[in-house]
Amino acid sequence: MPHLDLQGEANLVRPYMYTHRTLNSNYAHYNQALAHPQGANLVEVIGTLRYQPLNRLHLLGRLTVSRFGQDTLSARGAKISNVGKDVMLNYDTRLSRPGDLGHELGQGIPVSLLFWR
User: What is the reported pLDDT for 84?
Assistant: First the structure.
């Protein structure tokens, strides 16, 4: 179809991807993640559609579907478990699995986001 553009993107970010033992060495600047705005431990798919049926008429649609694992919080809001989403947490506080093995994308409390415009 003429004047129709489709674009797709997929992102997979493993748990603890941007964390480090010290806050000075994690992948953040001014307490914000440098790589992905949602941090780590996520799967995301983005689809974009652009259509120009007339010279001065441009149509744009974008759909983002994201699924990630959230940390467990106590009743007072303190973090109980570090599942790898928050880049500001020390990776030595990760779940009790030995080393880097046994961690899965989306571990923790599953959260799904759907965004379109």
Answer: 84
Residues of the chain whose pLDDT is less than 50? none
| Model pTM score | 0.81
Handedness of CA 69, 87, 13, 84 (dihedral sign): negative
* 108 Ramachandran zone, left/alpha/beta (phi>0; psi -120 to 50): left
Residue 47 three-state SS: strand
**All structural domains of the chain with their residue ranges:** 4-116
Looking at the chain, how many residues does it have? 117
What is the DSSP code (8-state) at residue 84?
Answer: S
User: Between β-strands 28-29 and 42-54, what pairing exists: parallel, antiparallel or unpaired?
Assistant: unpaired
Look over the chain and give the mean of its residue pLDDT values, rounded to a whole number: 87
Of 43, 48, 18, nearest in space to 111 by CA: 43
Do residues 22 and 90 make contact, with C-beta atoms less than 8 angstroms apart? yes
